[in-house]
Amino acid sequence: MDDERYLDSTLTTFLDGLAARERAPGGGSAAALTVAFAAGLVTMVARSSRDVWDEAPGVVAQALTLQDRASSLTDSDAEAWDEALGALRATADPKPNADRNGPSRNYKLEQKLERAAAIPLEIAEIGADTAYLAAQAAEHGDLAYRADAAAAAALAAGGARAAAHLVEVNLGIRSGDERLARARASERAATEAAESVLASIR
Amino acid sequence: MPPSGETPAASRLSALTDAELVERCRAGDAEAWNELVERFSRYVYAVTARGFRLSEQDAEDVYQEVFARVYTHLDTLRDDSALRPWIAQLTRRLCIDSLAKSGREQPRDVENEDVRDRTAEIDEAMAVREALGTLPESCQEILDRFFAQDQSYRTISSELELPAGTIASRIARCLRKLREELET
């Protein structure tokens, strides 16, 4: 997708980019955008519930903040993936004079992998917070918008789950890593919030 | 105890209104003058660097000039409670002079819509910051953690030892207090 920021592109261009053979944008960007969509829906529900929910204005501010954070990670994740892949390729360079075992190169690779794991972790945590707010919106918001709140919770949980998976498969993550535990905890929290909302309206 | 390393004297002075601060500056209180500079330095810097986007050198020159003029002309301020708008106007005027002098802009183009939007945002941010300072410490902390430090509900809950399910509600209630403060 050239050098255009995903957030500045049209949705069609972004979807074309997702479907293209290039690695980025990929799962992380899609997860970030999914969480941003969910936060947008929570904002809509809260904005439409000011007459029935005292905390609605405060929820609007929080949901907008989460939307902003998640959407900005759409680009960051793709950049981090690009950089990590570049570093991995450089390490695996078969050319005889390639400095693939140099400590400095390994250090740089670790740094890139670290960043590539940190971003999906952040997406998972924002997904958990968004799912929680969506559940609150479903419980306290205007009943006419309850289905949108439930949709928001389901989307946020999906985004959190996808992001937690990306943390798990990152090469910089070993079993027992604290970041993986945090990602899994966020995934669980988001899933529980979404399931409680969906169960309550079935 | 005053927060984060503030001395007791500085803590007392930071509680003064603008008018009380002006009165003490006029009486030659050096600590009051330091408090005045501290209170407005971030605002003046933001308007010069982010509002008018002056070069680093020009921004520094304007910054120095603003406080030099405030110091020498404080006696001419007719309404002591109008210190803030007076400093805001002085800063804008000196930024416009600086841009015109450097030849980057024609005087009539200097304060265009973009600059006005940016300085309005800075004014708003400063008003929010000031109102934030009047809220209970617990509210300042939770709002800062969520909105400025980008912390998740889980992190806030664990660091402040609060039940996880209450964080969003607490933030909403603190935002309501902040709004009430801004509307008074």
Descriptive report:
The complex is a heterodimer of chains A (202) and B (184). Chain A is an all-alpha fold and 202 residues long. Chain A has a single domain, classed as Formiminotetrahydrofolate cyclodeaminase monomer, up-and-down helical bundle (Four Helix Bundle (Hemerythrin (Met), subunit A), Up-down Bundle). Chain A is 75% helix and 0% strand. Chain B has 184 residues and is mainly α. Chain B is built from ten helices and no strands. The N terminus of chain B is likely disordered. The chains are: A mainly alpha (202), B mainly alpha (184). At the A-B interface, helix 3, helix 4 and helix 6 of A face helix 9 and helix 10 of B.
Low-confidence stretches of chain B: 1-5
Q: How would you sum up the global shape of chain B? A: globular
The helix tally of chain A amounts to 6
Largest sheet of chain B: none
Q: What does the largest sheet of chain A look like?
A: none
Q: H/E element string of chain A?
A: HHHHHH
Q: Which structural class fits the helix and strand makeup of chain A?
A: mainly alpha
Which fold name fills CATH's third level, the topology of the largest domain in chain B?
Answer: Rna Polymerase Sigma Factor, Chain: A
Q: How many domains make up the coordinates of chain A?
A: 1
Give the SSE layout.
The complex is a heterodimer of chains A (202) and B (184).
Chain A: H1 11-19, H2 27-47, H3 56-91, H4 103-140, H5 146-169, H6 178-201
Helix pairs in contact in A: 2-3, 2-4, 2-5, 3-4, 4-5, 4-6, 5-6
Chain B: H1 8-14, H2 18-26, H3 30-51, H4 56-73, H5 83-102, H6 107-110, H7 113-133, H8 137-148, H9 153-160, H10 167-183
Features:
heterodimer; A: Four Helix Bundle (Hemerythrin (Met), subunit A); 6 helices; B: mainly alpha; Rna Polymerase Sigma Factor, Chain: A; disordered N terminus
Entry summary:
The complex is a heterodimer of chains A (202) and B (184). Chain A is an all-alpha fold and 202 residues long. Chain A is built from six helices and no strands.
